[in-house]
Amino acid sequence: MKFSQPGADLFLPQKGNSQQTLATTTHLGIGAHADDLEILAFPGITACLNHSTQRFSGVVVTNGAGAPRSGSYSQTPDQELIRLRQEEQRQAAKLGQYASVIQLGFPSAEIRHGPNPALVGDLLQILKATAPQVLYLHNPADRHETHLAVLSASLAALRQLPASSRPKEIYGCEVWGDLDWVPSSKIVRLSCPAPEDFGPSLLRCFRSQVEGGKRYDLAAAGRRRAQATFADAYSPDQAQEVVLALDLLPLLESGAPSLAEFVSGLINEFREQATDRIKRMGSA
Q: What is the pTM of this model?
């Protein structure tokens, strides 16, 4: 498999033939940065953990050169940080028992302004090679512009596939910004059955981030637990950890709304429900 960026990396933790290994993928995550997969696609990673027939593969789009850094990493130059983050992602793939992880190595600046044709082509190639049943993406309400760019490119690649060849489930998941404001009828709750320390351990593979000033290991686990507990005020917790997601399949239908229209619809419904609750209490 040949990718557009010279620094692209295809890693198979269990070795083997790349084409055959990619074809074993049942759950695929596409994230913008190293460590995004371990947050947004955590439900898919846990679904495949120690499973005999389900395999997780991940795609990391950017090279991570612009990541914040402090402490012992504060003076790390971009090229060294790129190398470190690539190796960290490989370590996470080993720990998480991934079938594969592909790091495409795009600079963020190259993909932020509309779907990059080279990126769309790379993603289309990967989608054809893996043919996943379940796909995890960034969500259209995410606050990170690079995340939105990767989502847009992913959708562009999916639209080039015949409908029969697309994943049966496509979810836009939380990273920068929670989705607990989304009306309950539009939210999908993805449980993450795994040993208690598995999620934090995955994110601690990314030492340049965790030790460099961003405690993703604690924050992501805390959010999953909070989403499980605060799901419903009137019933016991239904899962220990939950990632909230949006069903993105409607964005691939004929006459589908744009990403802006999709998010605007969710915001309008949230506004109506919030004001209706207040009105029912007799408040102005």
A: 0.95
266 within a domain of the structure (yes/no): no
**Residues spanned by the domain of 105:** 9-251
Identify the helix (H) or strand (E) that includes residue 247. strand 242-247
Report which residue type is found at 156.
A
Beta strand pairing call for 242-247 and 56-62: unpaired
Residue 76: inside a domain: yes
Task: Tell me the CATH number at 80.
Answer: 3.40.50.10320
Is 269 inside a domain boundary? no
Quick check: 34 and 173 in contact, CB under 8 A?
no
> How do beta strands 169-173 and 242-247 pair?
antiparallel
pLDDT in tens, the chain (284 residues): 899 999 899 999 998 899 999 999 999 999 999 999 999 999 999 999 999 999 999 999 999 877 665 666 767 777 888 899 999 999 999 999 999 999 999 999 999 887 899 999 999 999 999 999 999 999 999 999 999 999 999 999 999 999 999 999 999 999 999 999 999 999 999 999 999 899 999 999 999 889 878 899 999 999 999 999 998 888 898 889 999 999 999 999 999 999 999 999 999 999 999 999 899 887 55
Strand arrangement of the beta sheet that strand 27-31 belongs to = 9-11, 100-106, 56-62, 27-31, 134-138, 169-173, 242-247, 187-191
Tokens of 205: 């593979």
DSSP characters over 83-104: HHHHHHHHHHHHHTT-SEEEEE
Report how many domains make up the chain: 1
Whether residue 3 lies inside any domain: the answer is: no
